Amino acid sequence: MAKRTFTSTRILKEGMIIDQPITDVTGRVMIKRGVYLDSFQIKYLQERGINGVYITDTLVEEEKKPQEQAKQVPLPDHTKKVIARERVEDPQKVALSDNVKQRVGEGVQYLFANTDSPGFIEETHNIAKELTDAIFENSAVAVDISMLKVSDEYTFKHSVDVATMSMIIAKKYGLSKDQVREIGISGLLHDMGKSKIPNDVLNKPGRLNDREFQLMKHHPLYGYNILNEKKEGFSKAILAGVLQHHEKINGKGYPMGVDEAQIHTFARLISVADIFDALVTVRPYKEAFPKREAVEMIMSMTGELDIKAIEAFLGSVILYPVDSNVTLSDGRLAKVVSNDPRYALRPKVVVIETGEVLDLANDIACANLIIKE
């Protein structure tokens, strides 16, 4: 039987298993129940003034996810009929086969490790073609972000995710097929400059100090220089996307601090994809934000990100695919039956127990309901 003890944060040690979730003032979970504590998390607890936490000697089973809960509830016959009547297929989503994911993931790893290789340009264009074909062969206009993962290694997963999202967003934005392919290249290589950042800075499990942050802020410039040296291999648009993907329309980005008038369209679109993917991904220094919160954060950044790029992003991502089982904020279990491209966070759902249809986007009676992650 697991032993649960209340332990002072002053004597916590790395590797101890916490038996309670730790939330911030907004209710966001910062440390999940059941994780092995590391030095950064222990310091976080101490700096917040938390005197003690519950520790267990056995790994805590994760709380059941909404979809797992819903799968255990059989669909009543009347609910099945309602779902059949209300169900509308999602827009065509980009689909990456396991073979494509493997080839793309391995290709990106090769590029980061071999920036001086004579085959660098050709390999980059081959990878971009794989992604372009996957998008245009099935007329994809949306992306299910939960299906993107190609690798357990953050840098490579992030590069492919950002490239894929940027291409879909660019298509929604109205760019041509050639431009979509080029922004894919820019997205794949947007963090190439991180190959010049020391690993102890790149993977530091905590907040960067001023010196380290200043070094990290140079990675777009490093990436630009790597690609610019390859002469005619990459267009000015591709280079601009790499160089400017951390610039902000209010002029408070980096590495140059340019404002809206000087930021290339590629960089505006990649920036949205880059921020979203970073928010929803676990890193050594932070937990992943729930998808809903990440979208809300993107929506709040109208002073920093291009509003048209945000709109294209919101019209392209599918957070709750049709047929997903979800838990509503009032505790009811429901099944997603259709999505509104204008409101990524508020699909139409059918309550599993009663068969009640809830149009979260358009029914004012549902204004106080949200989907819980």
Q: How large, in whole angstroms, is the Cα Rg?
A: 22 Å
Poorly predicted sequence stretches spanning 5 or more consecutive residues: none
**SS-derived structural category:** alpha+beta
Instruction: Sketch the major β-sheet.
Output: 5 strands, antiparallel
Order of helices and strands: EEEEHEHHHHEHHHHHHHHHEEEEEE
Count the domains.
3
Oligomer: single chain
Superfamily at the CATH H level of the largest domain?
Hypothetical protein af1432
User: Helical percent range?
Assistant: 40-55%
Intertermini distance: 30 Å
Tell me which CATH architecture of the largest domain applies here.
Orthogonal Bundle
At CATH level 3, the topology of the largest domain is Hypothetical protein af1432
- Count of helices? 14
Residue-averaged pLDDT: 86
